[in-house]
Design goal:
The chain is an all-alpha fold. It has 5 helices and no strands. Helix 1 crosses helix 3 and helix 2 crosses helix 3.
Length: 81
């Protein structure tokens, strides 16, 4: 959808407002797509993950291992079954 929208705009077929209405997105999103297209071409319009590469608040692996061990020691499910 992004590629088709930008191609229509680039060839002069639609205004930004018309494209927004036709594709059901905001005019601001159309502006963002065009800025990406002008900066990096069609390659920039491909879907890319927004997931961060790292998480500084992630629980350390040693803490996770300790917690899993404690859960195993104090599990009430062993007593029930």
């Amino acid at each position: 959808m992004q590629r088709a929208t930008v191609e229509r705009l680039a060839e002069g077929g639609l205004t930004q407002t018309e494209a927004a209405a036709r594709f059901g997105v905001s005019a601001r999103w159309i502006h963002t797509l065009l800025a990406r297209y002008h900066a990096d071409g069609l390659a920039r319009l491909q879907h890319h993950s927004q997931r961060p590469h790292t998480n500084p608040n992630q629980t350390s692996i040693t803490t996770v291992i300790d917690l899993v061990g404690l859960r195993a020691c104090y599990s009430i499910y062993k007593e029930i079954s």
